[in-house]
Every structure is written in C-alpha cells, then in structure tokens.
Known about the structure:
single chain, mainly alpha, Amino acid/polyamine transporter I, 0% strand
Amino acid sequence: xxxxxxxxxxxxxxxxxxxxxxxxxxxxxxxxxxxxxxxxxxxxxxxxxxxxxxxxxxxxxxxxxxxxxxxxxxxxxxxxxxxxxxxxxxxxxxxxxxxxxxxxxxxxxxxxxxxxxxxxxxxxxxxxxxxxxxxxxxxxxxxxxxxxxxxxxxxxxxxxxxxxxxxxxxxxxxxxxxxxxxxxxxxxxxxxxxxxxxxxxxxxxxxxxxxxxxxxxxxxxxxxxxxxxxxxxxxxxxxxxxxxxxxxxxxxxxxxxxxxxxxxxxxxxxxxxxxxxxxxxxxxxxxxxxxxxxxxxxxxxxxxxxxxxxxxxxxxxxxxxxxxxxxxxxxxxxxxxxxxxxxxxxxxxxxxxxxxxxxxxxxxxxxxxxxxxxxxxxxxxxxxxxxxxxxxxxxxxxxxxxxxxxxxxxxxxxxxxxxxxxxxxxxxxxxxxxxxxxxxxxxxxxxxxxxxxxxxxxxxxxxxxxxxxxxxxxxxx
Length: 477
C-alpha cells in the first residue's frame, strides 16, 4: 500500500524537455539578469566585468556537475534536499534543503524589488525625465506579486510554456543587441575588459564574480521538477547542461558588449545609472528597439520571479510532505495539482521581505542586500552538496574519482574563494547580506539538530516521499 496517495502528488508528466529547458533558462532570467545581477556585478568588477563572467563560466560549469550527477540517480520535488537526504544522510539533506530553500526564496524577493523599485522607475526617469515618486514602486510590486501568484497557482504546465517562449526571445534579443554594439565599435574593440586592470586588481573582480556566478547559476533549480517531469533522469540533466552552455556564452558576449559600449573607463558609473543596458541599446540601436528591449526585460524579470516561486514552494512542499515542515505546505490543489498553500505563503512573505528592504535601505541597496544573501546561501548549499555527492556514489558503489571527488573539490575551492572575496574588503550592503544568510543557516542547523534529538525517527523520513513517487513513476515507465 503506497504511503503517498495520488491526492498528495503533483501532476506527473507535465514537463517535457523543452519545458524543463525553459524553466532552467527562466530561473537564470537572461534579460533580467543582465539588467539586474550583471549591473550589480559591474559595481565591483567595473571595466573587468567580462573577465568576471568568463571566470564564472568555469565556476558554474564545475558546480553544476553535482546536481547533474545527482539527477542521474535521484529525482523529486525536494531537489538538493532529496539528493542529500536519500543519498548522503537525512539530517545533512534537511540542513541543505533549508539552505537552498532560503536561497531560492530570496531570489523572489530581490527580483520583484529590482523590477518595481529600480528598473521601472530608472527607465522612466532616464527616458521620459519623469520622477514617478519615491514610493510608486510599492503598488507596482504589489501588482507584480499578485499576477505571479495566480500563474503559479494555476499549474506548472502554463508556467513552463510561458517560460520557454520567453527564454527563446530573450536569448535572441541579447545576441542581436551585443553583435550590433560590437560591430558598431569596430576597431575600438579590445581585450582589456578580460584583464583585472580596469578593476585595479583581482579582489574587486572576485566580488563581481560572486554575482556573476549567481546570475548564471539558476539552471540547477530545474531539479525540483523531478516529480512533474517526463523521463526525469534523462531530461533534467540535459536541461541543466544545455541551459548553462547557452546562457554562459551569451552572458560573456553581452557583458563585453555593454562594457565597451558604455566605455571601459566610464564603468564606475554603470551601476549608478540604474538602466545602463537600455542606455547603451538606445545609443547604438535606437529608441524603437530599446522600447522592445524594455518590454522583454520586464517579461524576463517576471519569468525570473515565477521560476523561483515555483521552486521554493515545491521544496518546502517536499519537506513538509515528509513531516519536516509545516503540514499545511504539504497540501495539493485537487484540480491544478499545485502546492497552493506553499505558493500563497511564499509569495506573501516574499512580498513583505522585499517591501521592508526597500523601505528601510532603499530599493537599490535593498536589491543588492537580498540578491547577495541569496547567493551566499546558494554557495554554501552547493559546497555541502559537493561532499554529499561523493558519499552518495560511494554508497551506490559507483564512485568515480574525477566526477564525484576532484570536480566537486575544485568547485568547492572556487566557491570558497568567491565567498572570501565577498568579505575582503567589506562592502555595504554585501557584508550584511552574507551575515544575514549565515545567521539563517546557523538557526536552521541548530533547530534541525535539536529536533533530531527528540524526533530521530521523523528525520530519518527525509526525502522518502520523493523517492516513493519516483519509484511509482519508474514503475509506470
């Protein structure tokens, strides 16, 4: 008799390969990342921004090895939580689960705050010379999160179809924009942005690299669709790799085009301009194309907010279905087959976190604070998962030194170096963001360990629901 009934399961077979690829790219949110995270990275890397992205390709390539290898064997709604809970150790997996949940949840917060509080007001101010007011972003953000919530509530299939279409258009627009700028500059193109010289040393490049890696790392969120994917062991790992290869190449191209288009020596003003990508596009391509770009950047930020809402709600749903989170989050809508309570709560809390950050320290610093807190938790969760991967494959007696030890070790070193340079030298509000992430992680670890002392039997259940559903899917296939 199955422990998990059909009423407790999400809609199986709803996501084919193209849908999974769309989710991966949507989580990266190419146009939105260029407008938001790339702009944030430029505050630190300045004229060496392309170097930061080039190094980040190596960093992300080796770090997606871990979810790639895990997804060959284990799939489920919990993603990294299920990977480590069933592969390495239940307590270990639960700790990583809450870290990764925090990271994906914080993506929602920084995306909606940037869109409403930085990007839209900045665009209107620059192009129309109109100040829409200090708090107009609040109703914009309110409308934004309400629409996101409704789409996520209605089911994963329409969300993924929308994400795939939007992703294809975004990639095309970025390539067109970059090529036009590079061709227009002609002999002014140079290798200098691929050196640490414009940033006056590697330290600033490394801090920029933290955000650069973060902007390209979203593809791993697709692992939370294991329960809803067609042939998850085949399609999830393909979507992971292909989405990264596409977006990684495009980001290096775009970061170079924007840097030389803005002017290498002028890059210190890139971040403070709020909408530098649109300014460069207007300069080299013209206003009609820039308006189109603006519309699709908003669309990209929307898709890039929807993807983490789907991801974070499914992670907390998975942990709650195992009895390791609030029971109400384990409810599945009878018609739409979505974790609707989790979706509503994640959206509501994200809204108030974003609102508080924007009001207390301003939308721009609030965005940097939220995005850095998210990246810090993501990096730590990935580092711990690198160790979990080796343990898992040793248990399976399929351990390979290169893919399960050497590559994860290199990824750990790269991520650790990036984290170190985030502290040295201290930079507001990045340092406070990392402290916030660490405080959350410490509280989560202590709470889980205390709970485990009293309820060790429940901790042992971590990841079990996902594995049971996976076995049901494989039995049917």
